[in-house]
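Thanks for the sequence, V.! I ran LysR substrate-binding domain-containing protein right away. Repeating your input here for the record:
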Amino acid sequence: MNAPLNHPLPLLDLDVLRTFVAIAETGSFTTAANAVYRTPSAVSMQIKKLEDILGRSVFSRDARSVALTTDGEMLLGYARRLLAINREAVAKFIIPDIVGVVRLGSPDDYGERVLPHVLKRFAQSHPSIAVDVVIDQSVNLRRRMDDRMLDITLLTNSYKASAVGAEVLLTEPIVWAGAKGGCAHMREPLPVSIWEEGCAWRAGALEALGRDGRDYRVAYMSSHTAAQRAAIMADLAVAPLPKSFLGDDMVELGPKDGLPAIGNYNLAMVVSPDASAPVKAVADHIRATFEVFRERGRFLS
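Predicted structure:
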């Protein structure tokens, strides 16, 4: 029901909008309740209050899922903008105005999949810090770090051999990825798509194939994630990927498909020992991002 024009429009509560965004991002009232430190019943009351104010339903719900309505999708854009403006305004008063440039290194896979989310959110809270990103292989990034050409770098390492002085952010399985409905894993020798020398995923995959005595050939080689995905989707080869990297158009292959288990890997972070305030701010933000991933199993957009 629209408010009469001679009455002031109601104000939207930022706490309620924060809950609304959390539900939209997680697809769950229960998970969102944990994220905003409220009970599920309190979260439900907040959304009812929001829908009463707007006179529209923002979620469609059934026993198994929660989805945004058309009005909810429209509100989501406004809610994110309002929360971003609030963060920016409050940060001006309670967060020191840190200014500087941070040189950040990342492997290609995380540079493509994770960093855009990390840097987008960081820019909202620290608009005066510029982040220059270098994408390269982990072995080269570690060398750049040792030569003081980087302030922070992310590295992928085998589970058994993390880099000296590195802080482990994430440990997860490496799995064989194949095209959904594909048959590349049935071919002999096995066509494999891998990275160049020095990649932890490559080392683990080839070691597993060697232990299993499975004949293979390198059918596709690239250090770029997009090219690896293209090879998988074209059913040219199977490839070792972190389990969280599998998309809806891929399947995880394993012993039942004739492929050996590979094992785990670590994603680690190395920070300059004489880190400046801007460097520390970026490092803290990266830690928080992966803490959210460990709790929810997904990165926030």
